[in-house]
Amino acid sequence: MTTLRLLPDTDSPLDHATALAAFGDMLDGRVPDAEAAAFLTGLTVREETAIEIAAAAQALRERMIPVQAPANAIDVCGTGGDGSHSLNVSTAVAIVVAACGIPVAKHGNRAASSSAGAADTLEALGLDLDRASAIAEDTLGTIGIAFLFAQKHHPALGRLAPVRRAIGRRTIFNLIGPIANPARVRRQLIGVARPDFLPTYATALRLIGVDSAMIVAGDEPLDELSVCAPSTAIRIGACGDRTERITPADAGLPTYGLDDLRGGDPAYNAAALTALLVGAPGAYRDAVLLNAAGALIVADAVSDWTDGVALAADAIDSGRAATLLSQWIAA
Questions:
Q1: Is there a binding annotation on residue 118?
Q2: Is 113 a known ligand-binding residue?
Q3: 21 marked ligand binding residue
Q4: CATH topology for 74-152+171-330?
Q5: Which cofactor does it need (predicted)?
Q6: Is 223 a known ligand-binding residue?
């Protein structure tokens, strides 16, 4: 293999054109593995800039297999990497928000740093991942939800899988998952596992372009709004351009310990999600309600946290969320 373009030095921030070309070369397999590994590791050590994150996302989006989604569709997705091994909050949030009448194009993958990712848990619930991706546009239109399995929609990432495994730590490609949604959604609730990184990520999202978004992190840190500690949220676009601090009490919810959200393998997490949808109380339910409230604010379905929690709770308690999951599995 020959290097068609010498990768730039990562000591200094890259401009957009340089970064876009570098990520394109890596995704197209034009860079030797050792050189790609050194480049990605260098970015991580130096810390990625907003321009570099946006360029990496653009390069991946240019190579993805897209799907069509309604204009008001939303995604709820985290970057992962918080090390909490918690239950699948964003997966449950996607089901609850869809049951509130908001189309959800859920982007996700198998676990990278936990025991059960969105794909693993949905598969344990009975969702056929291959079929779910194949009929994503149909289910978005009929029942208002789809799972966009990253492995199916981002084949270019497969070329870098050996490199990322060899590196053995997160790279910029872990950060760009939420902003490389194959449905090109323009409304998003995004969780980031590093509270100090929220402003950088928010700038990257502005560069990519959204209509309405909220980027959140729990103080623990968690890559979601936390019911165990305060959280920080940066709002972008139609839901308001501002930074705010949120506690569970702000949404009328109690505070829990982090162990109350501890998950397990896919079967364990699937059982917990099933119990949640039939009314099981506790930390998992309240974490889902809080994050669903954030998504509903982004979707302009509610204007405040308590109304969002109430709407999400009704979607569960009425049985609509459980029915939607059953319909999705049977589709």
A1: yes
A2: yes
A3: no
A4: Pyrimidine Nucleoside Phosphorylase; Chain A, domain 2 (3.40.1030)
A5: Mg(2+)
A6: yes
